[in-house]
Amino acid sequence: MNTLNVLGIETSCDETSVSIISNGILTSNLISSQDFHTQYGGVVPELSSRAHLQIVMPLLKNALQKSNLKLQNIDLICATAGPGLVGALLVGLTFAKGLSFSLKKPFVPVNHIEGHIFSGFLMEEKPEFPYLCLVVSGGHTLLLIVKSDLEIVKLGSTIDDAAGEAFDKVSKLLGLGYPGGPLIENAAENYNNDLIDFPVAQCKNEFDFSFSGLKTSVLRFIQKEYGDAERIPHGDLPKISASFQRTAVKSLTVNVERALNKFNVNSISVVGGVAANKLLRSELNRISKKYGKKLIIPSNEFCGDNAAMIAYRGSRLYENGFKFSLSENAYPSLNENSFIKL
What we know:
alpha/beta
């Protein structure tokens, strides 16, 4: 993207983000995280919506200032249209549509998951089509082959819990808190002894994922060994956390290896919030070297929800000729339920 100043807005859950890509260069990517949800053990939708309302305008002003632009200089406006929390999405979506209407500039609604899928292109080293893409977040787990900007082949998805959701639920079982991913990772970080043998689910479709059974296995272990979570000795938390994390990562990477053995791809990309997990990154790095494939993992700034990926994805759709009216909230061509299946 070399000719447009693209504004991206992301408000799908508990991060408010505003980003600008100018002349193909990311000039600002501001993210405001709603850390207050930790006291509730999860995201409270109404509070999330209110927080988005309070911060989106200040973020826009700061992003424009950081990019040395005025609002009138924006050429294209993109916003997350879903999936996500309805109230939270409406804040960013209606705000973006209002800007589009007042500035008389084109508007592109962006599928949140597609934003993640193409977030690797925000890095200096970019994925090469076709690439194998593992999407791992709090709400989604997908294995895809991305053939081009407009062709995505869905190999598999979770049949129950998403990977990030499983981390959150097990973290709650262990009394570690929310969000579960970094808390479990921190608890497991220095544990190098024997691990508990939790099962890796076997699905009917070899590329699907399942984490509900793993979560239940952790619960049954706690009940058998301690009676309930409140009786777990603090010294045992690293072992349980490391065992769960190792099994969860293996559940993801085994399907990646299956796909690499079956399909010809030029690179691998792992995206979404769980892509920040160090063990997952390490195991995928090992696999990429084993199969001689380039591995692209976005930096932590782009693993979580961010507007840069929304601006980038929206710009590519616009350059590919997609046009949208302000009455549209999403587009039918590429969403999670309509990825091309083998």
